[in-house]
Amino acid sequence: MIKRLGKYVVKAATIAAMSMIALTHVAPAHAQSRIKDIADFDGVRDNMLVGYGLVVGLNGTGDDLGDADFTRQSLVAMLERLGINVRDQIDDLDSDNIAAVMVTATLPPFSRQGSRLDVGISAIGTSESLQGGTLLVTPMVGADGEVYAVAQGNLAVGGFSAGGAAETVVKGVPTSARIANGGIVEREIDFNLNSMQDMSVILRNPDFTTARRIAEAINAYLGEVSARPSDPGTVRITIPERYDQNVVALLTDIEQLRVEPDQIARVVIDENTGTIVMGENVRINRVAIAQGNLTIRVTETQQVSQPSPFSQTGTTQTVDRTNVQVDEGTDNQLGVLQSGVSLQELVNGLNSLGVGPRDMITILQAIKTSGALQAEIEVM
Which NCBIfam families match (predicted)? Predict the structure, then answer.
């Protein structure tokens, strides 16, 4: 009896294992993405900060005060705030160790007062390099004009410039720099996440199908209808009672759910570089393609004509030789693509005709004009 029961247990375990394997193969992980990777949550966002400041301590590579009036005025204003009056000697100021810069930073969501930010520095005057400079205290404001952070510190420049009278070597961009943890948050953005009664999931690539799949995945996890897509880019979520005053836990659970994003059939073309990017859903109806160019190549070669040896007559002259070659593209053939061909079949068919990337751009546009290309073409 015990042996028979053991066989049943082993058989049941085997069936359960096979069921788990089957479920795993039904939804391949590589075809799905986490919600946090394809969408954002309403209210959880960064804020851009910008400021105007002065960099000092440059080794003769700063702004020319004769050409950069804003740098001169900023220097005078800074000295006056420190109790030094130089208004009477403003025309005599001639220092090339100072530069006017723009300071930028990104304020992460829920940043608290006293936390640190990385700041970027970019010269806006005639400065040649910011190497060795120090940024003075610079207030940084948001879109509303309020000061949210203050930046100061020594600059880290990723490039350099060196040279002499005959040659100059420049590596990277010496007029841009960065200060790690150079900004301090002075003002917080009030936002009470846990008090929210509903929330929106905002898709980074709006799509009706993807929005519905996200709503279905959330409802399946919660066991109730709490999420509804309101448009292709937004899914509204009503906070369930068990997550009341604990929205962070809800977002933590939701952002880990996996869905398969859908995408429209699109062909992106960059004519400047000859780059073509096609989605897997691109389809083409039955169409015949012929590609050929008339190429005329003219080569001019100069040859030297000399008289015979020991000849008493004749002179050495230069004679032009012209070689004209005409290629009518007779090797190119007419290719036929069947209806509903996939992306790979399309590429293989065009490659078999010897079509290069730039000619392929023209062919794709012609196919779209004929109505055979079932995709959207976007030219960058």
Answer: PRK05303.1
Distance CA 367, CA 380 (A): 18
H or E segment to which residue 20 belongs:
helix 2-26
Q: Return d(Cα 123, Cα 62) in angstroms, integer.
A: 9
351 found inside a domain: yes
Helix ranges, the chain (H): 2-26, 35-38, 69-81, 208-222, 247-255, 343-352, 357-370
Q: pTM of the prediction?
A: 0.65
pLDDT at residue number 342: 64
Amino acid residing at 13: A
For 363, the 3-state DSSP assignment is helix
Mean pLDDT, residues 205-234: 93
pLDDT by residue (tens digit) across 275-313? 788 777 777 777 666 666 544 455 556 676 677 776 666
Give yes or no for a contact between 199 and 41, defined as CB atoms under 8 angstroms apart: yes
Question: In this structure, are 164 and 230 located in the same domain?
Answer: no
The residues with which 54 forms a beta bridge, in sequence order, are 100
Tokens of 233: 């880019």
Total count of domains within the chain: 3
Dihedral of CA 218/224/228/234: which sign? negative
Residue with tokens 């937004």: 234
Residue 8 lies in a domain: no
